[in-house]
User: Fold this.
Amino acid sequence: MDGAQFLQVLIIGLSQGCVYGLIALGFVLIYKATEVVNFAQGDLMMIGMFIAFTFLNVLGMPYWLGLMCTCASMALIGALLERALIRPMIGEPTFAVLMLTVGLGFILRSFAGSVWGADPKSIHNPFSGEVLRLGEVFLGFENIAVMVGTALVCIALGLYFRYARIGVSMQAASQNQLAAVLVGISVNRVTLLAWALSAGIAGFAGVMLAPVSLIDPQVGFIGIKAFAAAIIGGLGSLPGALIAGIAIGVIEQFAQITLPTSLATASPYLVMLIILIVRPGGLFASVQRKRV
Amino acid sequence: MRFLFRTSHTIDLALFQHSGQVFWYGLLVIALLTAPLVLDPFYLGELAQVFIYAIAGVGLMLLVGYTGMVSLGHAAFLAIGAYAHARFMTWGMPFLPSLLLAALFTGFVSMLVGLPVLRMTGVYLAIATLALAEIVEQVLTHWTSMTGGFRGMRVPDAEMLGVALDAPRPFFYVCFAVLVASVFAALNLLRSPTGRAFVAVRDSETSAVSMGISLVRTKTLAFTLSGMFTGLAGALFAHRIGHLAPDAFTLLTSIQLLLMVVVGGLGSMHGVMFGAIFIGLLPQGIALARDVLPQGVANLPGIEPAVFGAILIAFLILEPDGIYGRWLKIRRYFEEFPLYRKDTFKRQQRFLSTERLR
Assistant:
């Protein structure tokens, strides 16, 4: 593999990794606020892709307006889901909520299949086909868009958790619900907000992924790889999720050209298992090990 | 209402609490033993499927319901049991030794896997097992010389004492016998100090350790036994489907198994049975419902997973104790008839708190 090819693969890996990272951010956001793992995150992204398809291709909206509308309607869907399904489960064991989101994933997939049909679709966007040429390396505009978009979302989220009042109260609510209630934080509102934000980000990830991947009800399964990323990053850490997501994207791309198919397909999971065995709390673990 | 007067500690340890249980379980066993005489072979096959689910459920219940560890990858152990059994039989091993060896082999694999994986807890463990299942699926697909790859492998016909076991009736009896043996083994295990240790670890690791229980040993044992029972179920499952292919053991299968123990009711063997009946008969139920529903709804593609999801969610929100929990409530209602209080089974409100620093 020469230098140019190496760079080319690296860039494709980076942009794929950014999508994993974006979905992983959604996981981490909900986890940080409510200690719940949302297994349906990938399927939320899939719904986001279909909504974007409806706005852009069926209704013919301009791209940026469509993007905004997708994120907004996804946030609304996230809030509704929280209100209908997650709120009754506050105080139940996290395992039960995890199972609930697994069930939610099934329903979302069937729903998308029956509303939009099972045949793959694609979205028009302003960058597809445009290529930036740097020496021997070709940079697709859609890849650049993914990376820039991811960077922006991350910065915004980082600032939000660091400075915004509601961001800080989200952390408080997840660390100790009772204490948070006692100091006057509305845990219900925090959970609602976390779900809305997370679904909004899933919608954004969907729009970013749409040009590089076809849209069909099964596309949400890449959420499992993003999940691996979130776990490697340590579940509670936003930068960790992003870095791990990118790492997984890059490793996967390189594995695909250097290793036999079986190993390449399993590579994200192998990497995750190895890291979990070495560091059971993930790379950027935020959990204090329980002293027994 | 029956009052149990405990006059010695052996009553608490007994397999049957009172003569009523002996009578009703005996009746159930007799009913099932005579079922093949009256039932159509199709229904016998369905019942055998329910038994197989129940055997796997016993394994998963030991892990999830009694030791408190969640596995999202039990389809992997089902697959290992099935493939190992089919492989042993292709090599010419008789049915029974092959069945037992497949179970032992699966137990051994799950022990090897469990040693590193069990350092994790909660969600991390669930995801690690999920990753494991994905890896096993890849191995099944690509280790062509051993597993037949995508095209899969045929399961040899089983025979014991001159009887062909693949016919519906003998197969029904085999599955039933294995199920009874499994449940008996699991119940005995749960009455022993080891089983009590499982429950102690589930309820509080800290207090379990302070009572002198070795966490590593207990968890690994639970994982191993769980894998063994699931492998046993897998071996029988191989005969049930007749042709093994990797797509019979996917994430969906793992989730189905987990759904079974959750819907049945976590932490009881009754829950396993209710869950297995539920999961085993649900596809038939959906097929029947299709005839009743209006055309537009009934012909929607992929309605089955959606129904699965909806039922799972409904149970988690409305009846977290599962079918068995609901049965206990109904029974208590009639036992105490005019005096039943609504909040008898109400759970204490819990608040989440973690050891997370950031």
Remarks:
- Chain B touches chain A through 55 residues (CB under 8 Å).
